[in-house]
Amino acid sequence: MAEGYKYEYFNVTFPAEYVAHVEINRPEKLNAFVEQMWLNLSTIVKRLSHDSNIRAIILTGSGDRAFTAGLDVTAASQGTLSQNSSDSARTATALRRHIFEFQDCITALEKCEKPVIAALHGISYGLALDLSLACDIRLCAADTRFSVKEVDIGLAADIGTLSRLPKAVGNFSWVKDVCLSARIFGSAEAEKVGLVSGVYGGKAEVVSEGLKLASLIASKSPVAVQGTKEILNYSRDRSVEEGLRYTAVWNQAMLQTQDVKDAMLSGLQKKTPKFSKL
Fold first, then answer.
1. Which pTM value belongs to this model?
2. Per-residue pLDDT for 127 more than 70?
3. Mean pLDDT, the chain, integer
4. Ramachandran sector of residue 131 (left: φ over 0; alpha: ψ -120 to 50; beta: rest)
5. In terms of CB atoms within 10 Å, which end of the chain has fewer, N or C?
6. The pLDDT value given to residue 79
7. What is the per-residue pLDDT for 80?
8. Measured between alpha carbons, how far is 272 from 184 in angstroms, rounded to an integer?
9. What confidence score (pLDDT) does residue 272 get?
10. Which 3-state string (H, E, C) describes the chain?
């Protein structure tokens, strides 16, 4: 199966049953992103989303120094950002389209039908927050250093952090603190505010824990897991009443799955259930 997932700047492997491991692979540049990388990541995630052999995904960065240092500013300055028209409206239109495309590539992680676990380590700046906040679960190594870096390069972060971070941590004062200052903060502070749900000794340990969690999720009913992610994401941005109504509509179909019967029967028989591919 790995032969079908050959993409520049990424290693895609399948370390456990129903689990995909997507590794950002540009360690010589601290895994900093050029345009082809976010396009490739989007393609990979969309393929895995519909791959019936996959039920959970872990996202990591190669090398010991960084998950990702963010956007490759040098490459960006020579690409779309350097293309200016004499007409400001036309320049603005091109930039808006470019931003929407970049946003969509990162949002692919959030829209993926399968849960995505981000295992962060080392330098995790700028785009690292955009990526991990679009994931479902965030774990990190003790050496992880975070920063919402964009104000240091003259930008308001525009790929997702400013929209997702307040919902992820629930402390708007802290969010403004780190976003307005671009200060670096560590794993202990990230865990304290709820940005990550676990801190582990080093990169190897956090990746190992991420794979264990991915394998555990992958052992569950894919119907139940997909539905749970969908309903949680839908309900996050809406009222309780709207969330309840959506849940009822979703489950009026999904409760008819064979998985419910198999899970209940396995519980009675004290056996581990095996679920069909979705």
1. 0.94
2. yes
3. 94
4. alpha
5. N
6. 66
7. 64
8. 44
9. 85
10. CHHHCCECCEEEEEEECCEEEEEECCHHHCCCECHHHHHHHHHHHHHHHHCCCCCEEEEEECCCCEEECCECHHHHHCCHHHCCCCCHHHHHHHHHHHHHHHHHHHHHHHHCCCCEEEEECEEEECHHHHHHHHCCEEEEECCCEEECCHHHHCCCCCCCHHHHHHHHHCCHHHHHHHHHHCCCEEHHHHHHHCCCCEEECCHHHHHHHHHHHHHHHHCCCHHHHHHHHHHHHHHHCCCHHHHHHHHHHHHHHHCCCHHHHHHHHHHHHCCCCCCCCC
- By residue count, the chain amounts to 278
Report percent pLDDT > 90 for the chain.
82
61-70 residue pLDDT tens: 999 999 999 9
- When the candidates are 1.10.10.10, 3.30.450.20, 3.90.226.10, 3.65.10.10, the CATH number that belongs to 2-218 is 3.90.226.10
pLDDT recorded at residue 212: 98
CA count, 13 A, side-chain hemisphere, 168:
27
- Rounded CA-CA distance 38/190 in Å is 25
What phi and psi, each to the nearest 5 degrees, are found at residue 20? Answer: -110, 140
- pLDDT tens-digit profile of 222-271? 999 999 999 999 999 999 999 999 999 999 999 899 998 888 888 778 78
The domain locations on the chain are 2-218, 222-269
Segment 189-205, tens digit of pLDDT: 999 999 999 999 999 99
| Angle separating helix axes 258-269 and 222-236, nearest 10 degrees | 120
One-letter amino acid of 56:
A
Residue from 74, 37, 91 nearest 153 by CA = 74
